[in-house]
Amino acid sequence: MYELVSEVCLLLVTRNEPVKAVSLINDLKEIVDEFVIVDSSDPAYRNHLDSVLENLDHVHFFRLAPLGLAEAYRAYALSKVCSEWVLMLDSDERINERLKADLKKLIESDADALKILRVIRHDQFSTDPALFQTTGYKTRLFKKDKTQFFGRVHEQPTINGKVTKLSTDYKIIHYVNPNLYWNKARRYIKLEVLLGRWNYEKFVNGSFVKRASLLAYLRLTGKRLSDEVTSRDLFLIKRFGAKGLKKLTYKPDEYLKRKSLLINCLNESVKKITFDVWCDVQNFKGAIQYLNLNSQYTWEKLNEEYELQRLSPEDFFIYLLINRFLLRNSNYVTDYDAYEIIKEINRAADIVFPEAKNSAI
Question: What Å distances lie between residue 52 and 23, 48, 65, 209, CA to CA?
Fold first, then answer.
């Protein structure tokens, strides 16, 4: 076991972005006390990052098999942290100067985690305020021993303790390339086919009125809490859950529409088995416990298996989830194996993302 000897650790999960990763490390090397870095880059992208790490004093570096989802690595990375506090950033994110200056002071509060406003900038070299877009608060600064990750798409850390929201003076700036957005969205939504579905039970919490209304609707339509939510019902639930006048104006965003469309583009057999995989994963709250991704032994085996399978990172992740499901449910009846399911998911993704076609098999 490591002892908590430092104050703040940068936790970075990166893939094929060595220039951005090195820039982030250099930007914070005088601010943080420790680095825990997980890299899943292809061989051609490794040398630049490796050369920089040689000059860092307190760094724990791990090269792990690509899975196409940063959230899958975070529990393992967190277990390697020595510091009491963790600052979690991606390669294409930076903290503003005010947050750099006050970082050590902020962690002296009585909070166990701090939510920080994140804004998007579409051009890293522009100071035009019109290029900034607010995306809300993210929990990115937290105590190691108060934090859990479960391995879900777009996951925020689960904090067992007090969470405080910082003022808007403190910001995380997320530099994005709009031209690559749908390539990333395609990857995330493919994984959400197995990690981000909905059943009606997920929406029964909340006010008495909302719960009673949903249960009445299910009785009227003959649906069960365990059934998958239809796209039409999902949009109605979202609208009903909106506040104030937004109930009248709510429209699903493009990401949600494409996610729903991709699921509906699957043939019925694959749509069912992938939903059943999602249901099975829910027993473990996410992919980390389901695949035992907090184990060094697991990662050693995955490194070997990734080289053998020759799948894209997200397809390899899907392959692991399906095979784990079939192993756990040996009596499950299906005519599809993991490769056929991946092929069907890619077929649907090609329909939904014509601007980002890259089917692997």
Answer: 10, 7, 21, 57
pTM: 0.91
Q: Are 31 and 109 in contact (CB under 8 A)?
A: no
Cα 120 from chain centre: 17
Residues 6+ apart with CB under 8 A from 342: 311, 315, 318, 319, 322, 360, 361
Arithmetic mean of pLDDT over the chain: 92
Sign of CA dihedral 340, 342, 346, 349: positive
Could you tell me the two tokens for 104? 């050590």
Provide the sign of the torsion angle of the four alpha carbons 40, 313, 135, 88, taken in this order. negative
> Residue 146: what pLDDT?
98
Contacts of 257 (CB under 8 A, 6+ apart): none
Nearest to 166 by CA among 132, 186, 142, 196: 142
CA of 333: how far to CAs of 150, 221, 326, 329, in Å? Answer: 28, 28, 9, 9
The pLDDT confidence band at residue 55, using thresholds 50, 70 and 90, is confident
Which is nearest to 102 in space by CA: 190, 169, 159?
A: 169
Residue that wins the pLDDT comparison between 145 and 181: 145
Please name each of the domains of the chain with its CATH number. 8-176 (3.90.550.10), 184-356 (no CATH)
Where b means 16+ CB within 10 Å and e means fewer, 263-293 reads bebbeeebbebbbbbbebbeeeebbbebbeb
Identify the band that residue 132 occupies on the pLDDT scale cut at 50, 70 and 90. low
